[in-house]
Structure formats: structure tokens, C-alpha cells
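ugh ok fine here u go
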Amino acid sequence: MLTFTLGTFAIALNHLLLISALALATFVGWRVAKRGGDNPESVLFSLFLIGMLAARIGFVAVYWSHYRNDPWQVIDLRDGGFLAWPGVIALVLASVYRGWRRPGLRRPLGFGVASGLAFWLLATFSLTIYEQGTRLPEITLRNAAGETVQLADYKGGPLVINLWATWCPPCRREMPVLENAQQQRPDLTFLFVNQAESMQSVATFLETQGLSLSNVLFDGSGRLGQAVGSMALPTTLFYNTDGRLLGSHLGELSHASLARALENFDSVPANSARKLPCPASATC
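structure:
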């Protein structure tokens, strides 16, 4: 399961874990402060923001080449571009400084930060292990020629699967990024699995947007999203040659966040392309 869904509301599990870690740290700090010390609630929230800012700055620094030509993308947090370790380091250092400045905060803040970090690290590690144990679903789809194809037939090489729809603004914004990656990475197979829309509406969208995508597939009932546990769009999944999930990204991809996600794959020789389950006369 990649998202937590309640009615029409859906949130990525990794985001839910962050919020839960902050809530736990606040609760523990408050309980400890009742036995003596200052309530660290407001301090913990500011530390959380410091950690997130450091995580973003760290990500931008590492992938600066993808932001150089469009610096405004640095403040566009919708791509989910964060590096955990700079954020954790900044949070711990800021906690030590706050505790040094305010002795009454030391014990409640220390327990709060420690419990929140421990929960987040353990939960994130467990979620990663769970995700990487899942396999490519056995799902029947249709290609642009209207022919039935099995998703498992694409197994045998590195696979990037994008779940999208034309009515989804983040999906529309990230399409040029994915189109460019498909052209630049012939060693990877990109599948664009449309969710519950007609072939005509998708064809019209691609034509009007000037997009040239290979391997556009159609999931008329949205079963793939249900199978992978994500009801949010866009969702991008990364599978290895054995059909094992290496990672996932919920939300819009930028050039930088996609570059980071593709680091999951080992180098594959460019001449190792395999035949896809698509007739030569069709754009699939």
C-alpha cells in the first residue's frame, strides 16, 4: 500500500509517517514536560520546519544540474525532492542548540526528538522493506491498437510505470519530463498506463500537447492502482528486471526527482533492448 485513502482523501504513506512522527514527538515532549520542564511543542514544530528546509537544500545541492536552467523550480516542492540525511543532521544540531540555550527544554525536547526520530526511521525502513518485497501485478491492459496485453509480458528489463489521467494537472505537468526520459534512456522501458479514460480522449490529449510517447496502455477499470495500493495520481513505479518493486513516487516528477528515482536501476547496456508485446504497426 502506497497511500492511505479515506473517502476521496488520499495521502502518501511516507508523508503520513512524517506527520505521525511529529505528533508522537509532540505528545512525548508534552508528557515529559508535565513532570518538570518546558513544553517543547512550538520548538518541535520549528525544528521540523528546519529539518524539511535542510532536506530540500540538500536535495537541490546534489541535483543542482537539473535546476540550473530554471532556478524557480527550487521552491516548487511538489516534486517531493528531499534528502533525509541533511534534514536529520540539521534537526539534531538545532535541537542541541535549543537545549543548550534553554535548560528547561533539554529533557522534554530530548525525549520528544528521540522518540519522533526513532519512530520515523523504523517506520520508513519497514515501509521500504515492504515495498521492495512486492511484485509486478498480474494485470490485463490494452494498448493503443485496442489489443489485450499482459503487464507481466513487459518483465525482463528495467521498467518504469506511470499511472496517469488527462484530467490530472500534475500528470499533465510531468508528461514532458517523462517523455524526455523515455528518449534519453533507451535502456529502460517506460509504460504510461492511463486510468479509466477512453483511447480517443487520450489520443486527442497527446496530439494537442505535442507529446510523442511510446507504450501508452489503458486500464479501463483502474485495477492497477488498486493492485499496487495507490489511489492517487500521478503514481510512478520502478521495477527491476525480475519484476520486483524498487521504489515509487507519488505526485509530480521533476527532472531532478526523476533522476534520483532512476538511480535505483543498475546500468543496463543500451543494446539490451527486448521485444515488447506490441504489434509493429501500432503505437503502444
